[in-house]
Amino acid sequence: MIVGPTAVGKTAVVAAWAECQPITVVSADARQVYRGLDIGTAKPSGALLGRVPHLGLDVVAPGERYSAGRFARDAAQWLGHIQGAGRQPVVVGGTGLYVRALVEGLFHEPPLDPARRERLRTWAGTLTPARLAHWAARLDRRFAGGGRQRAGRAVEVALLTGRGLSWWQEHARASGAMRPWYIQLTLPRDALHRRIAHRVDEMLAGGLVEEVRRVLATGVAPHAPGLDGVGHREVAAMLAGRLPERELREAIVVATRRYAKRQETWFRNQLRGAGGGMGDAGCVWTLDATEPVDALARRIVERWRAVTHPASRIPHPGP
After folding, report:
1. Label partner for 192 (CA 20 to 30 A): which of 100, 124, 167, 184?
2. What domains does the chain contain, in order, with CATH numbers?
3. What is the rounded CA–CA span in Å between residue 180 and residue 140?
4. pLDDT at res. 106
């Protein structure tokens, strides 16, 4: 599993890795699952997709909910198909909840009354994201944030079961757990900020505003799943007149920096934390992403082969 904050260079490492051995990528990105939202989610280029198979992209339409639990079920099947085809599966992404759901297995969630659940969703749709997060935190003291969809889910479970989502996740029996090898990519803060600013400039030049305008024209609400992520939501606010166009770039840059910081904190706590975390010192390898990607990929392949096939040697790839 290659994890790390947005813009750290995960896709570039994957591209270099694919030069060394046949890999298939499973995307663990909660935004890249949406069809038609390519620029703002920094999906891999068509050239890379033609060379390296990717699963987990373009799974649902904007406006449709796609949960961490659903990802874990889908990804478990994808991983089985990849291994059955004799290829190396590599899970890549920065959505910690997706990674955790896949690694720790699915908990058996409580049954929720469909009619009451739909009424709650209608009510939640009338709230601003901040107000919905406020209710989620009041109903579940361990609610850690994660966007409108996550907050709505926390509210539903708490009101319909009498217990917070965090309680169910902690106490419900898990199944399908796995033991991964994490490759955590990091960058010094100033280097990451430069990459974020460069990526935002590329997105705006590549048609991010038109991408959002096109999706909104299909009738998708501005706060619907898919459009509620960083970048898309700022463009939607600008198109609605709530954000001056001259402030759009800086708003996206600042929001992306904050998001990257939350990702870094989440992975640091989950991968290194004791008791209930996803990782341990034996299966987490932190790499400095300022190194050339070819060197990083080579080190990854050599270390992986040394662990899984200690007696084997890896031929150097051709020029």
Report:
1. 100
2. 2-107+175-208+262-308 (3.40.50.300), 109-172 (1.10.20)
3. 29
4. 58
